[in-house]
Amino acid sequence: MTISLDAAEWVRRFHRAPSAAARLVCFPHAGGAASYFHPVSAALAPAVEVLAVQYPGRQDRHAETPVDDLFVLADRLADVLAPELAGPVAFFGHSMGASVAFEVARRLEARGTRLLALFVSGRRGPTVHHDDRVHEKGDEELLAEVKRLGGTGAAVLDDEDIRSMVLPALRSDYKAAELYHYRPGPDVACPIVALVGDSDPKVTEAEAREWAARTSAAFELKTYPGGHFYLNDHTAAIIRLISDRLTA
Length: 248
Description:
One of its GO terms (biological process) is lipid biosynthetic process. GO terms for molecular function: hydrolase activity. This protein is of the alpha/beta class. The chain is 35% helix and 15% strand. It has one domain: Rossmann fold (3-Layer(aba) Sandwich), CATH 3.40.50.1820. The protein has helices at residues 5-10, 38-44, 70-81, 96-110, 139-149, 160-178, 205-209, 235-247, and strands at 11-12, 22-27, 48-53, 89-94, 118-121, 192-197, 219-224. Strand 2 (22-27), helix 2 (38-44) and strand 3 (48-53) form a beta-alpha-beta unit. Helix 3 (70-81) crosses helix 4. The longest helix is centred in the last third of the chain and has 19 residues, at 160-178.
């Protein structure tokens, strides 16, 4: 299926898979970009076609103003994705991306789309709130937090040119994630699979288990050794999990 011009602004497809059994839409973490999911796309194709979301303000969209309101971001993505999701589809989001994926799923299900599954990684349930204010701190403190969590590319933040390019989107994403509060209303009717690292400083297993209340379908919790970016060390296992759920 061809992606519309509007969706092409927001979605990256690294490996075409016209005969795929399903599509997986991936939502990046705060400061992350669509390219983070290139290895996932390569591993799942051609059985599953991956569409990776590219938020404004990074990589090829670096000249655009980042969106610092998660609800605004979800509204826009729901409008963009709705025409593109004919056939079986699932969502995967890590950290902030999990909240974005959930809110987009709520909006699309209200329009009649039904997901095969919602994979939420490294993120506490939406009703669990921490009064984090990292987005209000200075540049050095914000970057120190990113390095502490150990995300892919954290080491390159020592480069002054790269820092100046990523800081606006990073701060905007942190604001969107930290000020997000769950709004009561219909949740989702698809199964939710929550994934978490056993030593993640941002979310405990108990907080991840709170996702169970946000679906009327089945819920699973998968725990892996590691911190907030545990998935970097368990990519193969997570890809097997996704593949099993989407191609069964």
